[in-house]
Amino acid sequence: MNLRWNNIEYIIRTGFSLRPVRIIKGLSLELKEGDVLALIGPNGAGKTTTIKLGCGIIRPSKGEVSLGGMPIESTNVKRDIGFLTEVPYVYGFLKVREWLEVLGRLSGYTGKQLKYGSDKVISEFGLIGLEDRLLSTLSKGQLQRVGFAQALLHNPHILLLDEPLSGLDPIWRYRIIERLIDLNKKGKSILFSSHILTDIERIASKIAIIKDGKLFWHGSIDELTREVKGYEIGLRVFEQGNLEEIESELSLLKMEKDSEGNYIINIPYKEEDLRKLFNMVSNGRVTINWIIPKREELAEVISKISGDLDEN
To answer: What domains appear along the chain, each with residue ranges and CATH number?
Structure first.
């Protein structure tokens, strides 16, 4: 099932005069089945609003959000979605298990199915021992894990996650990233927002750049043009006495040696340096075991795209 935002506008009214302010401006977007789509944009761009529209918590002022061709407002359609806000809302006077059971019943779970589902997510997200704790007594990271548990409790087809790694310690960041990758391999579609571009590169297959409530760019990460900035090269040096000469000729600070006996060097993208290196190969001084291009960081590419859009 594909989740679609079709020419969406979202307007709020502010101030004493209830002046209309357009938060989302003619946005069309699609989360295709099996995709992992990352929303990128500055604070206030409309990412959270887009996610809330996607799960039907708020309704568009214009346009339609649909899942599998059905309006997102339909209760049956909403059951296919797991939602996590940046700051998960919980009722602080309920215990962890009580909260999960309430939400499970709202998703149609009862009896043994509800107990099995609750036990599963409690174990999966490290909440064993916290089941009888009041939600108001949990730390931010613990509440975030409760948020993941409630989002996945009813085994939804689609996950909509707003800054899902916020507040997690390094161990749980790693575990959650691995879990999201695994869920996608099992066929789940995921849309998430994040400011951490290294997380986006690891998890997402596609990105959507949103700015001022508009969709400026949407596509696969592989479609981004990323300039080659240099190369990592693995060398086998025939005469160890040549090391200092090679370092000097290529203007290297030091060559690092790996466990296989290769010397690893990093050189900038300069034809002169590559020509010198290939001359060393032809003269029998070294062999090249690998060359890996070092391309622009994702942040640099996105910054360029945003700059071009500002100019237009």
So the answer is: 3-223 (3.40.50.300), 228-295 (3.30.70.120)
